[in-house]
Amino acid sequence: MTSKPPAVPGPLPQPPVQFPGPGSPPGAVDALLGSDGFAEAMPQLLLCLLERRYLTDFDPTRWTVKPPSADGSRPLLHEIRALGRPPAETGWAAAVPHVLTACHSGGHLLSVAVHGDGIRHRIHWGGRRLAGTSRGSTEDFLQSQAGVLRAHVPGLELGPADSFEEGTHADLAAFVRTAPALALITGIPAPVHGRSPAAFQSLDRLAAAVGARRYAVVVAAEPLSAGELDRTLDHCRRLRSEIHALVRHTVGNQQGETSSTSTTEAAGSEPGLSTCLTAIAVFCSLAGIFPAVRPLATAAPSVLQLASIAGGPRNTSQTKGVSTLRSHNAELLDATAEACEKLLQQHIDRLETARAQGWWRTAVYLAAESEGALESLAGALRGTCSGEATALDPLRVLRLPPATLRTAALHGRILPLVPASGGMGHPLGPAFDALATCLTSAELAVLVGLPRGPMAGLPMPDVAEFPLSAPPPEPKAVTIGRVTDAQGGEYQQVTVSDRALNRHVFITGMTGYGKTTTAKNLLVEAYTELGVPFLVIEPAKAEYRQLAQHPALKGRLRVYGIGPDAPLPLRLNPFAPVASVPLSRHIDLLKAVFNASFPMFAGMSYVLEDAMLEVYTERGWDLHTSANELLGARPSAPDVAALTPTIRELQDKIEEVLERRAYGREVHQNLGAALRSRLGSLVVGTKGMALDTRRSVPVEDLFARPALIELRNLGDDEEKSFVMALLLCRLYEYAESRAGAAMPEGEELRHLTLIEEAHRLLRAARPPSGAETPDAQAKAVAMFTDMLAEMRAYGEGFIVADQVPTKLAPEIVKNSNVKILHRLVAADDRAVVAATVNLTEQQSRHLATLPPGEAVVHDERIGSAVLARMRPPEPLAVRVQGAAGAPAEADRAYLHRHGGCRRCPAPCTVLHLADRDRARAAADQALSPFFDRLLLGTPEQLWEAWTAWRSSVPAGSLAYCTYAQAARRRLDGLGAPDRGAEFLGRDRAARILARLGEGWLKAEHLDGSARELLSEIRADLNRTIGSRPPRELSGCATCPSRCRVLPLVAPAVQALAASVSACADRPVPLDTRLRQLDALAEEHLPHACQILSEGQSRRSLLYCMTVNATAATSRGRRPTPAMDAAVAETLAALRSETL
Fold it and tell me: Residue ranges of region Disordered (predicted)?
């Protein structure tokens, strides 16, 4: 007996499962939970819940959004005013998660805001105290937050903490309160993995996308407790276990035939839903979340045959005589349930990560100036914050009532969210009962991460890490600052030992960043702590003059300068060597000074050297022994000054040297003009007062006491470098002389010299401009750099300060032991100094961002350069006045320009008035009668001439200065400066006349003391001039009035020469010749004849006239024997008692 198997029924179309809506009676919900269709729809419900699809088309009528209360605590915020440039590879992406983890405090909500006002963008970080859970104040939380930020973000600068409505945050609050377009955004921000992901997930990208439109992004992140996190994690794990049973199940069909007929049919039912799934179902029911669900209808045909019995297992058996068995099995996959399982696993992974990093319930509020701006802002935020994990909960923009959003944003609140039809919370826990997203710290970092690139209004300087330790101070050391870091913390003291100072210091940096303050502190510390005097050479400005008001230097610091505002006038004769220094070496140094300061063309230096040698030798100096026989064993300072050459005398000597060298006319003119113009610029105006002088400031006042030399009134750089080079040479000579007198043991620091703007003297080599020019200048600079290195052995330490290291000779930077580097912006400058202290590239770039008062310090004891905050300048109690820097006890004898200045009550204070051309001519004319009668006139005649002049000039210093200068000019006219004895004799005579001028300016009448003084002066002048006459001519030795008549004769010698010579050549009787000479005197010397009208005085006049005129004629032609005989006869007659 056979039987046919029944036809397998195909799948029947089934209508969608209909879910009861919100507010349905409990019985309807229970019936739903027990239906087969709901079991099949459960994965879809769970997926909607995990992905929060109910927010995609958010229906406010189905939900209750509770507005936040306006009372309670409000956020306190810091504005980020600056932060360091982030690493090139990752930016701040790796640092911000650590900051957030450290800020994950159970007691404070994290508040971050970004505000753009169309011009600049501001970033604010802060927090708000959570009532009932906080264990500390908000100020403590902000302090901790700032510390963590600074630890992870070098170069961070935060503004003061203010509430949302105050300070720099007031603009942000005002904008949020009035913005027309507001929204809230939910979803998971996630990092993008791959090549340079951080470059595209940064606030600077957001700011650039929004552009000039006004906007604000306010983030409120509430830290969730570990217990809350653990409960959510356990819940997700149970859900995953339960949903796993719905992912796959197997259906089968067996048919068999036997001789007997029997049918067995069994049907199974779905197991009951778990508690977790039941809660999900209830929540979805209350919230109205019901996706359309149909049974499986798209399987393969063989599977479709089994789908009709998919509700449970069914077995049918028929037995006949012939047994046949057929079996059909199929595994059904619920892809939705599988997706739920994977989604749950990803959430579990996030929660496990959150256990280590922190779990935040985060709300993000957007505000913009218009709807278009809001769309742009939301799109930019989605673009910068979307990553792989964002698919778990995509970023969605929600629109709610503006008042609700404003209050929440302004007060840092998170909006609660529950179904409108019931009070049941989210199945995953209370953390999800809000219009917010639960994020890990890494995810939150994507949202609140710091900018990687530039943002308008936010400085981002390069910041580097430096060592945070410095060697302990030595017994003899000065403190210059403290070790600091990029966050502003201060640590150990940074000290410099006396040995390090003796090996020189290099300070560099831009103007206004602390270079001068550092140098001042070094000088003051060395003087007060080590007792080391110093010299400052300041080519520009007058900043170091303030040191005169320092308590340790007040009344001790001497400030020298050029110009009328100098406390002490600078006098510096380049030709005055330091005692015990060989003269030949001084000349070599002086030649190097000219080569280093002025451009020298081919041949100029040789002419200059010859001229320098001659101005020394013609004054009696022996270049081999460096002695002058005219001075004796113990010469006085005035005598040495009288025989010391000056720049003007060097200038006058140039033409003689060129004539002797016999150059071609064009070469002669070019060399002469070039040299005279260079030297001429040094003898005019205030420069001439300082440099064209016989005396110099005593070296002990410059180098044995604290001293400052200001050169700001010299406008030309070449002239500044000339004076600086002169000072350096004098220092070198003094240090060598000092060391010879008492050589210290080892390298003992004895003096410090600070050279500001050292490139004026120690400049780097210039490009060649000629065949010989660069060699001379480079050679001179090399000599000076060698001098600096050599003076270390003499206990001379140098502080070289300059703004531009590339302008300096490389040896200066290389050979300095201590290097203090303030802010440098130029790449070439940074490269030079970074190579010498072994800075990394990042540290080198950090030099361009150093704030005022910070510097990178390196010396031999500091292995790696440290970042130091230098000591601030000490406040001065008294403002610097004009008299500061001129101690009362300072010796001003160095201001004497010649012997006549010896008795001056106020040296060089009125010289500029007495030395004017008109004043000189008037004084010479007015004092001529007085000087004419000085040696041979009666006291009454002299007093009459004196009072006539005295009545024409003001009393005081000007009267003395006018007299002394006129007396010196009168002495200079007595004879040509051919020998050193003449220079010395005239200067001594000027000193004698100074006594007369001082005494008679005080006298009111020609009393006995005035007469006695005149008698002494005449005797001293006769001895001085007579013993060493200005000119020793044939006949001078037997002169009856040796050199007393010469002042009257000297002005007319050239005019008388030809006439006297002709008279001597005529064969006439002696008495006729004498009458002819007397007539010549009346014609050419009427004033002298009036004074010397009769007797021996008249014969002395004719005698001196004949001797000088004959000598002047003999220079042009050789005299004949007859002329010599006639002259001898005439002189003999004039010497006799009667004619």
Answer: 1-28
Q: Which residue in 435, 414, 410, 415 sits closest to 178, CA to CA?
A: 410
The beta-carbon contacts of 1130-1137 under 8 Å, at least 24 apart in sequence, are 1130/1064, 1130/1070, 1130/1073, 1130/1074, 1130/1077, 1130/1106, 1131/1035, 1131/1038, 1131/1103, 1131/1106, 1131/1107, 1133/1070, 1133/1074, 1134/1040, 1134/1074, 1134/1099, 1134/1100, 1134/1102, 1134/1103, 1134/1106, 1135/1038, 1135/1040, 1135/1099, 1135/1103
Do the domain assignments include residue 680? Answer: yes
Encoding tokens for residue 995? 């006594």
305 and 176 together in one domain:
no
**Token digits for 695?**
């005396």
Given 448, 467, 496, the domain boundary residue is 448
E strands within 93-138?
Answer: 108-116, 121-129
457-504 per-position pLDDT tens digit:
888 877 888 988 888 989 999 999 999 987 778 899 999 999 999 999
Please write the tens of the pLDDT for every residue from 859-877: 988 888 999 999 887 766 5
Distances in Å between the alpha carbon of 962 and those of 216, 271, 449, 949? 80, 129, 80, 10
Q: What is the pLDDT of residue 186?
A: 93
What is the C-alpha to C-alpha distance for residues 432 and 279, in angstroms, rounded to an integer?
A: 14
The answer to whether residues 85 and 193 belong to one domain is yes
Identify the domain boundary among 665, 680, 695: 695
Q: How many domains does the chain have?
A: 4
The CA angle 766-709-774, to the nearest 5 degrees, is 15
Residue written as token pair 């030395």: 915
**261 and 213 housed in the same domain:** no
**Within a 10 A sphere around the Cβ of 13, how many other Cβ atoms?**
7
Q: Is residue 88 part of a domain?
A: yes
Question: Do 1064 and 1100 reside in the same domain of the chain?
Answer: yes
Tell me the two tokens of residue 162: 């203010």
Residue 850 identity: L
Mean pLDDT check: name the lowest of 534-543, 568-577, 739-748, 1121-1130.
739-748
> What pLDDT score was predicted for residue 1082?
76
Q: How far apart are CA 250 and CA 329, in angstroms?
A: 7
| DSSP string covering 266-333 | ----PPPPPHHHHHHHHHHHHHT----------S-HHHHHHHTTTTS--------SS-EEEEEEEEEE
The pair of structure tokens assigned to 1018 is 């005449």
Domain hosting residue 597, numbered range = 575-695
CA nearest 270: which of 443, 602, 39, 465? Answer: 39
- Report, as an integer, the average pLDDT of 762-767: 77
* Mean pLDDT estimate for the chain: 81
CATH number, domain with residue 640: 1.10.8.730
